[in-house]
Write the structure tokens for this entry.
Amino acid sequence: GAGVSQSPRYKVAKRGQDVALRCDPISGHVSLFWYQQALGQGPEFLTYFQNEAQLDKSGLPSDRFFAERPEGSVSTLKIQRTQQEDSAVYLCASARGPFEEKLFFGSGTQLSVL
Amino acid sequence: SQKIEQNSEALNIQEGKTATLTCNYTNYSPAYLQWYRQDPGRGPVFLLLIRENEKEKRKERLKVTFDTTLKQSLFHITASQPADSATYLCALKRSYNTDKLIFGTGTRLQVFP
């Protein structure tokens, strides 16, 4: 596609509910990143994929967070048993290759946990 | 701990003036530094990259400097316009084969007509 696409654009969840956030990267992009952005803050790294391999998940805040990219294109970030502190914008970014310097970001999914 | 600091207070300037934003970092020896623009409700958009062995980079009205001794980058927008109003983020990559880009907190720029 023309850019990185994320869905849903907005998600409201009750505390304890599971959510799944989707990212469609730019076609052919090898690298895919998930970032979490709290209000008024910069994006914080969550996890990184090179094709279908999850090479770095050091930023995932707890074992309630899980990401996958089974066919090396679309990725899903899943949050189980959501908590209020999970409320944030979740940004997905892709890049052409593993050492490609420029990231292309989607518009994000704004998650609100009530 | 590793830190990237940007002015948390908004920068307000008049149209036509030069805006200067600061990015300071500690405990890093970055391979390169990037600047991104972020508009409300949108993801960051790449603007410029400057490498550790470069002092200055320009693109149209934008200029970035990189001082590895001071551990600081300055981002300049000359002849600023109201359309330049946005949040500007700096980001570092620690090495060329390190996967993740680490972002600062961002500085909000407001350009008044």
Q: What stands out?
A: The first strand of chain B starts at residue 3 and ends at 6. Residues 3-112 of chain B form a domain with the Immunoglobulin-like fold (CATH 2.60.40.10). Chain B has one domain: 3-112. Chain B touches chain A at residues 4, 6, 32, 34, 41-46, 49, 89, 91, 93, 96-97, 99-106 (CB under 8 Å).
